[in-house]
């Protein structure tokens, strides 16, 4: 059973708190933030699950806020972490976006959702569609800040329709909105060697769907005919075709429970009845050859003014084609604790985004 649930701001302030069992001190949020902020073991970030004085803390971070569950029971960590992910999805479905500002402007709505999702510490139904019949509060939709500001590299803004609430189903003329958004979201992990060449690379992607269709009608989604998935499609020539660049090759994938794959192996068509809210229709992974959108090169030089210091220079090149757009881009470069100074330079001659730091 979950003893407490709360959402913390980046500063450690409690935005939302629910105490279900009363067996964990109310100061647990301060204990969590202090331990997570100044985690000592290995000088790294706090793990997603840790125990302090008999209380287990499980947490995730999304949208700039931290969602935390505490318990004294012997619960499955993966179950609780998945439950926290589901809370993130529900908040985004009903508030339009997950951020500190969005939660503060929809506190009553979030509390109403939590009352339906958890009873006496036991997680209940977390399906967005099932919760709609119990929700009476209207949301205040807040668009993410990086869509309100000028994006990096002067690229165009992305779509804002996906930040609507599932409760926003009608236009001003009273007619029902019939919209569906399909996004392909990919996370690229690359390891560069000292010469700046890629040592290893992997793409973890998902086909995300957010539906505002009236009556949840059945739909079909068609993928590439030249899509090959893992060893199952090896007899069709994965190695030869992929090396010539004629195939989209995935190492493996999995599908949402609503996906009907009866004809997927024949014509790469997925049939489904999309539920309300956002969900991942397909998750996939590939390590086959692709060109990453960035190049990174590192060099170390001895400091001429010191016998014990060295200068580390990281050069990052953006290779996003000029006809493509991106927004909300963040570049994070971890450095050792003994680094004294860091500065970043943006070359004015490179509109595509060549940057160097020392």
UniProtKB/TrEMBL annotation:
Biological process annotations from GO: intracellular protein transport; vesicle-mediated transport
Record's GO cellular component terms: clathrin adaptor complex; endomembrane system
Highest taxon, organism lineage: Eukaryota
Family matches, as Pfam families: Adap_comp_sub
Compartments where located: Endomembrane system
Entries under InterPro entries matching the protein: Adaptor_comp_med_subunit, AP2_Mu_C_sf, Clathrin_mu, Longin-like_dom_sf, MHD
Keywords, in A-Z order: Membrane, Protein transport, Transport
Residue stretches making up the MHD domain: 177-358
Protein name: MHD domain-containing protein
